[in-house]
From TrEMBL:
Family annotation (NCBIfam families): rrf2_super (TIGR00738)
Protein name as annotated: RrF2 family transcriptional regulator
Calcium is among the record's keywords: no
Annotated source species: Micromonospora maritima
InterPro entries: TR_Rrf2-type_CS (IPR030489), Tscrpt_reg_Rrf2 (IPR000944), WH-like_DNA-bd_sf (IPR036388), WH_DNA-bd_sf (IPR036390)
Keyword match Lipoprotein: no
Keyword annotations of the record: DNA-binding
Gene3D superfamilies: Winged helix-like DNA-binding domain superfamily/Winged helix DNA-binding domain
Amino acid sequence: MQISARGDYAVRAALSLATAYPTLLSTQAIAAEQDMPRKFLEAVLADLRRAGIVRAQRGAEGGYTLARPPRETTIGQVLRAVDGPLAGVRGLRPEETQYEGAAENLPRLWVAVRASVRRVVDEVSLDELVSGRLPAHVRKLTAQPDAWEPR
């Protein structure tokens, strides 16, 4: 799975907001904390606002905050808000793919890949990630001997 720069920045910004929740944070504060370009961050926050993940308050004391408590917001929600569906095959959702011959069973594999990704990103909240208290099944994945090895 490839995580886009937009997805990475969105999750990092959401984690900063989760840490400060319910206090408002300015884009400048988030950009400085996470070492990211402010203009790009503003575009990412606009996507998160349109998706209902964050809310904005204008003015001198304005900024951004999560629309819901960090325990109610998942990493998957944040990623979808900026990048769309988690898994795609040539622009199609996995269940929309169709093949013939030797590849006829390939849609099952693509659906399984999506289900595996969902099992991680849709089951980890911002609160769990900030605190480091990941669900047991996610911790187990990171503890596998080859989990941290590149392939």
